[in-house]
Amino acid sequence: MRRLLKWFAVATTIGMLFVLIGGALVTKTGSGMGCGRSWPLCHGQLIPSNITAELLIELSHRVVSGVVGLMVLILSIWAWKAIGHIRETKFLAITSFVFLVLQGLIGAAAVVWGQSDVVLALHFGISLISFAAVFLLTLFIFEVDKKFDAASVVLDRKMKFHIYGIIAYCYIVVYTGALVRHKQASLACPSWPFCAQTRIFPTQLHEWVQMGHRLAAGLLFVWILIATIDAMKRYKRQPIIYWGWLIALILVSCQVATGALVVFTELNLYVALAHAFFISCLFGVLSYFVLLATRSKKEKETRHESNVIPSAVLK
Question: Which residues cross the membrane (predicted)?
Fold first, then answer.
């Protein structure tokens, strides 16, 4: 039964990735109104008669989101019963389902009543929180075998600052990227890294939105690079931290590279979807770091424990 739970958790995590990428696909292809002002039906019909590419993309995203939503609900209940003794399980189970429902309601409201670009930009970020919760639930399910104990990780205050600060800042970067998509500002600046070859600074709103996101993403890359160098210097004996930050650096590098390629390829769809994929994976890795930070012992406490002479020895 536990093996089945593991497979189901992995499938649900992959399903959440499809929800995230599907949402990006809807936005990138301008298919948000593919089913008109009708939800959950499409143009008021269960089976639409006039099939278009935009309709197929929007309807497919709704179907996938619905199926995955049901999977998340099942996983939440199943995990609650199977590993509810782990302190974070119930919180993550509730978070994963509630935020997935919330992103669905925002999407439905956007279709039926319309929403501003500022509100719509929240859609991807809310889905990302649900994905991170499902991802961590999956890790908990595998952790039950005690092949790896997160509580054995030792982190100092500086590393915890990097972890908490970077994931919070990463969420801001995600929002600015979503705002770029919903403002249709992906190609507002025809050059990279500057807005244009003849000038550095933007001159109108769409250019400011685009360059604001580039600056935010650039700072995220630098911060992760600093944290990775710190991990490589001081955490060689803790492979999960050492390699985890290297993976984070690779993912953020891919994120920056695909961001540049979006401009150079003039919004190639596959490159744009890869851009969304890499930030989703990066947020998942950072979420795991948060888990490690909340469970780890303080470095001073660990040193103190190692210096205490057991009473049996004294006797």
Answer: 7-26, 63-80, 92-114, 120-142, 163-180, 211-229, 241-264, 270-293
Q: What is the pLDDT of residues 23-75, one digit of tens each?
A: 888 888 877 777 777 777 787 777 777 778 888 888 888 889 899 999 999 99
Distances (CA, A) of 82 to 23, 122, 124, 134, 142: 31, 32, 30, 15, 12
What span, in angstroms and rounded, lies between the C-alpha atoms of 290 and 163?
A: 6
Lookup: tokens for 232: 């490589």
The CA distance from 123 to 177, in Å, is 12
Residue 162 counted as an annotated binding residue: no
Please write the tens of the pLDDT for every residue from 202-234: 888 888 989 999 999 999 999 999 999 999 999
**Which of 101, 126, 147 is the last residue before a domain boundary?**
147
pTM of the predicted structure, to 2 decimals: 0.84
Q: Is 213 annotated as a binding residue?
A: yes
| Contact between residue 181 and residue 23 where contact means Cβ atoms under 8 Å apart | no
Q: Is 58 among the residues known to form the active site?
A: yes
Structural domain count, the chain = 2
